[in-house]
């Protein structure tokens, strides 16, 4: 007789739920090490890091931080402040409403990265460790100690996935990678923010003013970085600092205040932007500023089409070209085929109207298409526009646009006797040509922001959002989908044309090469769409921030040479992988990508 026995399965290993850090140090020791390391990193910036001024930024001075030392000082100060706040010191609780541990880790990691990047840059450029002074060694040890202490702070580890006995080696490797990623995600996960106590309205407005002042300071510093190493260090420090403040819950707290006072926030933002030219000693960075505003304004117009209505437009830059060519032809340029010189207000209205007419002409027969088919049609329109203006040279076609030479010698604007091409003195500050156009473009941007805000909050805006979310359901509810989409297309085209009328005068010359689908220099259709997606579709501030980054970063990464677009593209891929909703998403879209996030009590009409 044969006896069959069944093996009893081994009991599953019990998951250890005791909170512990990544580094095997006691919690008190790790917290003290992180706080003290941050403070020591601040002290190290007042020491010399190298003996020669051959390295940019002059890091040879005692008692006065310079160049990359300033960034390490900021990171060390944030690490120390978060560490002190974690001890419950009175007066620092407002800094960490969602808890301090995750913010300490990110701040310490950012400070460590910036300090060691600087030390490695000094060593490589100057030829060895012999070029380092004691301050560099102190910074290296201090930031490493702060990082180790921060990683020793305890956190609740997630239950690991168990392996199947039949898994292959590759499957076991992937399982281990998933478990490690889950642990790292839990390590940097923020806590639950404490309820905000009620403060007076004037205090909330002061918070908004402070936030705008900090934003202006960060933007001015970033755009004014004078050498490549400093800009890379700025990106590292700014990225980790914003991440740390977000993990601490401070960004969400400030965002709630700005959402409560939207009009005050908008006024404060434009006031801070208007102060930018007064922070510059010359017109060099005002040039970048005015081009960023042109790019951002067109991106915001595209956000109506893509972000609100959900229409994928790959030829949007053509509407910018329509407005620019229209303004150039009636500007009194000697290259224009028409002997017309209209005032700016008339040319701006004409450019917007002509662009809107083109939007209606293109949209009427094509907006019954959806998705990829609509994208292909709009891409074709963009290329047709570029080729059409290229061939209207009197040889291949009628003599209207002067072909590849474009319309040149476009005169500077003169509005009510104010010549935009001349320097002017305002309150003791000298404002040059590009600063003049910066203020004009800022006014145009304000108009576009108001139009976007009023449109998104209107009945037609709610219809756009309904079409974007589910067109079939919207049609079933009685919304005229074709009419609604055509209005979005026409309005977006008009806003792009309005920005184009200013661009024509800023650049002096309008040529077909400026309006391609993809090019190294924005604005072009690919960069415009990337600005909307990167910044956050359906929001006001998202495309503005996205456009600023997409214009500024490639301009500052020119030292990479042939690898510039590779590095830039890799950064975009990583960002879309880890933050697909964009840098400043609306709440509804954020919940679509992160289902485990806590849903808000109330969603606005635009999902913000």
TrEMBL record:
Localisation per UniProt entry: Cell membrane
Biased composition (Low complexity): 1-12
Keyword set, alphabetical order: Cell membrane, Membrane, Transmembrane, Transmembrane helix
Protein name: Branched-chain amino acid ABC transporter permease
A Pfam family recorded for this sequence: BPD_transp_2
Region described as Disordered: 1-21
Membrane-spanning parts: 32-52, 64-85, 106-130, 136-155, 205-224, 230-251, 263-279, 285-307, 314-332, 344-364, 371-389, 434-452, 486-506, 526-553, 560-578
Membrane topology classification: Multi-pass membrane protein
Organism of derivation: Streptomyces gottesmaniae
InterPro entries linked: ABC_transp_permease, LivM-like
């Amino acid at each position: 007789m044969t006896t069959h026995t069944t093996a009893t399965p081994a009991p599953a290993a019990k998951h250890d739920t005791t909170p512990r850090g990544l580094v095997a140090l006691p919690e008190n020791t790790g917290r003290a090490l992180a706080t003290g390391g941050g403070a020591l990193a601040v002290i190290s910036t007042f020491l010399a890091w190298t003996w020669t001024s051959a390295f940019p930024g002059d890091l040879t001075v005692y008692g006065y931080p310079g160049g990359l030392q300033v960034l390490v000082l900021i990171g060390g100060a944030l690490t120390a402040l978060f560490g002190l706040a974690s001890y419950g010191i009175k007066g620092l609780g407002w800094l960490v409403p969602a808890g301090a541990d995750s913010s300490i880790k990110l701040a310490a990691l950012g400070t460590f990265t910036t300090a060691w990047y600087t030390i490695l840059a000094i060593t490589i450029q100057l030829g060895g460790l012999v070029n380092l002074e004691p301050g560099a060694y102190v910074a290296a040890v201090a930031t490493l100690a702060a990082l180790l202490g921060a990683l020793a702070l305890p956190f609740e580890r997630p239950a690991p996935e168990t392996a199947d006995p039949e898994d292959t080696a590759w499957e076991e490797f992937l399982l281990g990678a998933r478990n490690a990623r889950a642990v790292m995600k839990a390590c940097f996960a923020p806590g639950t923010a404490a309820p905000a106590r009620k403060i007076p309205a004037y205090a909330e407005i002061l918070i908004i003013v402070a936030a705008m002042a900090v934003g202006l300071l960060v933007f001015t510093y970033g755009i004014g970085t004078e050498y490549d190493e400093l800009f890379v260090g700025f990106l590292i420090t700014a990225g980790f600092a914003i991440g740390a403040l977000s993990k601490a819950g401070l960004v969400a707290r400030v965002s709630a205040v700005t959402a409560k006072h939207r009009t005050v926030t908008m006024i404060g933002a434009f006031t801070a932007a208007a102060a930018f030219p007064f922070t510059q000693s010359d017109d060099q960075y005002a040039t970048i500023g005015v081009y960023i505003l042109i790019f951002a304004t067109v991106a915001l117009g595209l956000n109506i089409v893509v972000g609100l209505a959900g229409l994928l437009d790959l030829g949007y830059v053509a509407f910018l070209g329509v407005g620019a060519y229209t303004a150039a032809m009636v500007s009194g340029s000697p290259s224009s085929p028409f002997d017309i010189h209209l005032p700016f207000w008339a040319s701006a209205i004409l450019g917007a109207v002509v662009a809107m007419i083109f939007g209606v002409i293109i949209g009427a027969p094509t907006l019954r298409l959806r998705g990829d088919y609509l994208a292909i049609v709009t891409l074709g329109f963009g290329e047709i526009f570029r080729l059409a203006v290229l061939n209207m040279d009197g040889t291949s076609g009628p003599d209207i646009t002067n072909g590849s030479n474009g319309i040149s010698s476009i005169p500077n604007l003169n509005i009510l006797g104010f010549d935009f091409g001349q320097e002017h003195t305002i309150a003791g500050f000298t404002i040059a040509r590009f600063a003049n156009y910066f203020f004009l473009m800022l006014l145009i941007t304000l108009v576009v922001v108001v139009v976007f805000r009023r449109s998104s909050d209107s009945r037609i805006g709610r219809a756009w959002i309904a079409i974007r979310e589910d067109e079939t359901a919207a049609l079933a509810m009685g919304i005229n989908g074709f009419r609604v989409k055509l209005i979005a297309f026409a309005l977006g085209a008009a806003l792009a044309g309005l920005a184009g009328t200013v661009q024509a005068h800023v650049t002096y010359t309008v040529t077909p090469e400026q309006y391609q689908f993809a090019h190294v220099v924005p604005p072009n259709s690919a960069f415009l769409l990337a600005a909307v997606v990167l910044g956050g579709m359906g929001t006001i501030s998202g495309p503005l921030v996205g456009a600023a980054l997409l214009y500024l970063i490639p301009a500052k990464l020119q030292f990479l040479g042939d690898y510039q677009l590779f590095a830039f593209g890799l950064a975009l891929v990583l960002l879309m992988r880890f933050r697909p909703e964009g840098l400043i998403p609306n709440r509804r879209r954020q919940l679509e990508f992160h289902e485990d996030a806590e849903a808000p009590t109330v969603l606005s009409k635009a999902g913000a």
